[in-house]
Every structure is written in C-alpha cells, then in structure tokens.
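Lab notebook, bench 4. Still working through the backlog of constructs that have no structural model yet. Next entry is a single chain of 342 residues. Request: give me the structure tokens for it.
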Amino acid sequence: MGCATAFALSRRTGVEVVVVERALPGAEASSAAAGILGAQIEGHEPGEHFDMLCRARAAYPAFAAELKAETGIDVGYKRCGVLKVALDGETTGPLEGLVGWQRRAGMNAELLDGAGARKIEPMLGERVTAAAYFPDDAQVEPPVLLRALAAAIARRPGVEIRTGVTVRGLLSEGDRCLGVALDSGELRADATVLAAGSWSSLVAGLPAGLPEVKPVRGQLVQLDERPPRVRAIVFGPGGYVVPRGDGRVICGSTMEQVGYRREVTAAGVHGILRTALALVPSLGDAQLGPAWASFRPFADAPLIGASPLPGLFLATGHHRNGILLAPETGARVAALVLGESA
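Model written out:
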C-alpha cells in the first residue's frame, strides 16, 4: 500500500514522497500473497465494497502495463478466471445465490454442474459437483509486482525510499499529525500515510477510536507439476489452487489468529494439501515446493482515506484483498492527500 500510494503520488509534479520501510518494500504479506484478483469470488453481497473490488480489478490491466512500460517487468497479470466449487455432499444453494445476485448486478458469472466445471478446468476431481464460474477474475505474481512497484517509484523524481528504518510513532502537535518519529530523528511532512499492514495498530500516537488492525496468519504451499496442466484458479471449501501457468501451483491458505507467530506448521500444510488434492487430485503427483507464511492485516473493513487526526491518512486493513486493492487504494489516498476528489 505504501508503494502503490507513492506510485500514485509520484504522477503529480512537484510532490515529494518518502517511503519509510523497516526491511524491504513488500517483504511482508505483499510478497507472500497468492495474488488472486478475485473481485467476484470475494464479493459476498452487492454494495460499495463489491463495487470497489470491481473497480480495482478493472484498473489492473492498465496498472500492469504502466509498470512494464516503466521497468520492463511483467507482473504476471492474467485473466484466467476463477471457479468456486462445491464438493459431493455440499448444497449448491450458496453458489446459486452468489451467481444470481452478481448476474442481476450485470457481472459475468455462470452456474455450472460438475461436467460443465470440468470443461473449464479438466483437472478438477470427480468430487466436484457444481461451480460458480467468474471468467473475469484474474491473478498477478505478488513478489514480481512488488519488485516492479519499488523499481518504478525509485526511478521517479521526487520519491525517496528509506529502508532499514523503524518508525517509533507519529509526530503530532495540537490536533494535527506532522510526520513520524524515527530511530534516527524526525521526519516531518504535510501528509503522513499509515500503510504498515498488520503492524499498523502498533504505531504509537494513533488517534483514539481507530479500528484495530490484527494479524491473521496465512500459510501457503507451492507445488510444481511438469508439464503444467491446471489452468484456472479453483476455490473450494477451506482453500484454493492458483496455477501460474509454468508448472508452479500456489495452494492455500490457512486463516489463523496466532499473533505474530510466523511458523509454517505441519497441521497447516496438511490441511492445505488435503484441500488441494480434493479439488485437483492430479496434484498428488506434483513435486512439493517451498511453504511460507505471513500475516494478513485484518480489520472489519479496509481503512482507506483520511483519519480522525488531520494530516494522517490510512491505507491498511485490507485482509485478503490487499493485492487486488493496491492500485485503487493508492489512487484514492493520493487524491485525498492532494485535496482532490477521491
């Protein structure tokens, strides 16, 4: 969120931006994510949040193209479609309801039986009895996206990236935020953007009553299949399978409230693989690759925009949709920082 906001701000001439990062930009949840641009798969009901998810997804082709034009880095944007499936013994009512309201909202969605779902993704297991299909949902590769964003903002005039710097708290005088206190001193600014992900609520000096951002651990496992066979992203009960197209398949993910414990656990990996093999049994022959974990920044709703403290803006609390909402959040926060209509 910090890089995306800096990227949006750097489009305006005369704006000076400093990105403060204790490690490397995107080294936490951003680079650990699966990269699903699942506006429709994550849309649970009509309303402003769903509209925001769809706007963010619609912005991605141009966003990816702009990054590639500036850096030469292809961030792996692919409109690959997503299947949300039901397995034997499960009711199809939730899928019918999901497809129904999205079609009434004018979205591209289809309800399929098991045979129809296997026409979209032939590697689906026979336990799949029905699916909601969202052909417009897509994916990117988060680690590559973060490299491209960091490279782009580093090349733009007026942007400075400070790594290995710890923010101790906000600087405030009266009723206004004036910047941040660092280990090495103060960094004063006309506007400060809080984009610290799961650590956002640990920053000292936040205004009272601001919703808390909590870490939710997610574990993921990579499988490698040769040759590549799985084509579509598949969501099922308790997990998902994300094929990259080159043989890598990202399987996830747990949802664990364990504080800041980053361990990859035997139980977590077991559950992920059990779900993946139930969805796509042929992955049982894939080679086991790396496993990793990081923390989703959970809040009741994304915190995007102005805070109760003048001079402080928020870009955090995106939970499962941080990669999807990055360009939308960056553009909205940049507009508000500059006093423009968001």
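Notes after review: The radius of gyration is 21 Å. The longest helix spans residues 48-71. Flag for follow-up if needed.
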